[in-house]
Amino acid sequence: MKNSKNLKNSPFPPPPHLFSGVKWLISLYQNGLNGILADQMGLGKTVQTIGFLSHLRSKGVHGPFMIVGPLSTLPNWVAEVERWAPSIPVVLYHGSKDERSALRSSRLGSGAVKAGPTFPIVVTSYEIVLADAKFLASYKWKYIVVDEGHRLKNANCRLLRELRTIPTANKLLLTGTPLQNNLSELWSLLNFLLPDIFGSLADFESWFDFSAVGQEGGDKEILAQEQRSKVVSKLHSILK
């Protein structure tokens, strides 16, 4: 399939709401923004991502694209690309050290190779990113998609550090879990996506310092609820 519109003509047409997600991803790309596609499990983040990458290829943007996820999800990613966009080549970048070296030589070429129509979408695991970061960093990726992106909530985790060494023009995180439990975890994700805007955890936390609300008097629970409401409103404003 050459673009996301072709998904409508697929033998397995997806629900209409999926196209809204694809359009949103396209708008992010057009505005030079990275993003988080957060939705409940099973509601089509994989298909939306494939539709979006298919759209880019229809516009002459052939990548390279890399999808990073848990090992258990990799076969499904490959199968879904083959199902929804059979004209797009895809490779499962996994196996032993020698097998991965052979894949780089036979399917990916050198990092200096400009991605063309035959350059595949690369599907790989967190563990392989950790093992082969220096090789993967030799490619100038157009998009890196991180499935189950909440794995990056710890700003000091090794996976996050290695991903930062891999050059990419755009990043997309997919998550099926509620956005993080505290501000530092949310900041870690936003810092990975937009480091120029979310460069300092201390500054980020200061945006949510509503300790002065209701200085004295008043019910403590009411004041706490007011502070929580202000945090939620501020988050909505920032994320929008």
Question: What is shown here, in short?
Answer:
44% of the residues lie in helices and 13% in strands.
Features:
240 residues, alpha/beta, 6-stranded parallel β-sheet, 6 strands, 44% helix, globular
Taking the alpha carbons of the first and last residues, their distance comes to: 31 Å
Radius of gyration: 20 Å
> What strand order characterises the main sheet?
1-6-5-2-4-3
- Broad structural category: alpha/beta
Shape: globular
Number of extended strands = 6
How big a fraction of the residues is strand?
5-15%
Helix run count: 9
Rounded average pLDDT: 81
Largest beta-sheet details: 6 strands, parallel
- Which runs of at least 5 residues are low in confidence (pLDDT < 50)? 1-6, 8-12
Order of helices and strands: HEHEHEHEHEHEHHH
Share of helix, binned: 40-55%
Give your account of this protein's structure.
This protein is of the alpha/beta class and 240 residues long. The chain is built from 9 helices and 6 strands; from the N terminus they run H-E-H-E-H-E-H-E-H-E-H-E-H-H-H. It has a 6-stranded parallel β-sheet, with helices on both faces. The N terminus is likely disordered.
Question: What is the strand and helix layout of this fold?
Answer:
Layout: H1 17-30, E1 35-38, H2 45-58, E2 65-69, H3 74-84, E3 90-92, H4 97-108, E4 121-125, H5 126-136, E5 141-146, H6 158-164, E6 168-175, H7 183-193, H8 201-206, H9 220-239
Parallel strand pairs: 1-6, 2-4, 2-5, 3-4, 5-6
